[in-house]
Design brief:
Order of helices and strands: HEEEEEHHHHHH
Strand content: 5-15%
Strand order of the largest sheet: 1-2-5
Radius of gyration: 20 Å
CATH topology: hpI Integrase, Chain A
Number of strands: 5
Helix content: 40-55%
CATH superfamily: Intergrase catalytic core
CATH architecture: Orthogonal Bundle
Length: 181
């Protein structure tokens, strides 16, 4: 989620068919969410949110562990027999069922607290991803598209504080053009 800016529901809604590590790409078309006490898979809200994301080479290498994870799922499937629920999700419980977003939050919060980071929410990974991309000079429009925001203004409003250093660079660029200094 940190490397891609995915929403929690988008990450939990990933199926193996959405991930192509050979091409270094994943496709976001759905989300996993809780409605009325039940986990449901829903299409993303808008066409803009349905998107393909290119993965960096280091990210692809890190995700190669998913192949080992998938092999573990296959072993669990065999061991559990009829008790296994083949959901097709990348991230599952030990029974093969989708990971409940609330459980994801509790686990993540616990990991962060144990690491001495405080009480983080998984959504903070998305915010951090956007802030880091902008701080590294990725164009606002590109960050907006990667996040699946419906409007570039939404990205600018939420992450405008990260863009503040760019104002100084803009002033310096204009100074160079207009006055040669």
């Amino acid at each position: 989620m940190l490397a891609t800016g995915l929403r929690r529901g988008e990450a939990l809604g990933l199926r193996w068919s959405d991930v192509d590590l050979d091409a270094g790409r994943l496709v976001v078309t759905r989300q996993l969410k809780r409605e009325g006490g039940t986990l449901v898979t829903a299409d993303t809200k808008t066409a803009r949110i349905r998107r393909a994301l290119d993965l960096s080479a280091p990210m692809v290498e890190a995700l190669r562990a998913l192949r080992a994870h998938r092999a573990r799922q296959a072993a669990e499937r065999l061991a559990l027999g009829a008790a296994w629920r083949d959901s097709g999700y990348v991230f599952t419980t030990s029974l093969g069922t989708p990971v409940d977003p609330r459980n994801c939050y509790r686990e993540f919060r616990g990991i962060c607290e144990d690491a001495g980071l405080g009480r983080w929410h998984p959504h903070e990974l998305r915010h951090s991803a956007a802030s880091l991309m902008l701080a590294q000079g990725v164009k606002l429009q590109d960050v907006s598209e990667l996040l699946g925001h419906s409007l570039i203004r939404m990205t600018a409003d939420v992450y405008g504080h990260v863009l503040a250093p760019d104002r100084k660079a803009a002033a310096e660029a204009m100074s160079e053009v207009l006055w040669g200094c």
